[in-house]
Fold this sequence. Notes:
By secondary structure, this protein is of the alpha/beta class. Helix content is 41%, strand content 18%.
Amino acid sequence: xxxxxxxxxxxxxxxxxxxxxxxxxxxxxxxxxxxxxxxxxxxxxxxxxxxxxxxxxxxxxxxxxxxxxxxxxxxxxxxxxxxxxxxxxxxxxxxxxxxxxxxxxxxxxxxxxxxxxxxxxxxxxxxxxxxxxxxxxxxxxxxxxxxxxxxxxxxxxxxxxxxxxxxxxxxxxxxxxxxxxxxxxxxxxxxxxxxxxxxxx
Length: 201
């Protein structure tokens, strides 16, 4: 939050988390969805649809609205999901940490990441290496290829989106396949399991 009151709330939340064993998802997360267990803790309106497509793709998104869009598109494409999580502002838990925690789940076969920025790079690196070791492909859609998209990411999360060339080089070095279109984040899931879309990190 760019307002002084918002920054103060974030500061106080960070202090509370640092002095406890509690982990925080967010702020500004739209929640967690585990379709395998029927656990729906979200404010995303797409989750009221009947017959949600359960499957084996794990979605981690820095945008809350993206999980609803992916769920709707996945349903129409016949792609199902194990779980979807919106990471929000990543004050504590990072996208990489959440993905890393899901790696031992035999019900997860691949990953779809929606990235607005590259916060938590060390956690993302650890996850990418562990996913490669387990043969679980990771496909990412990263905002920021255009100046307008980079500005959108900054205004939405307040995080620096970073130079797109650097983002592409980082994802490539981590063995994460980057797609250029939102729909390809799902379209590439089955392909990524059949053939290597990126070199191992």
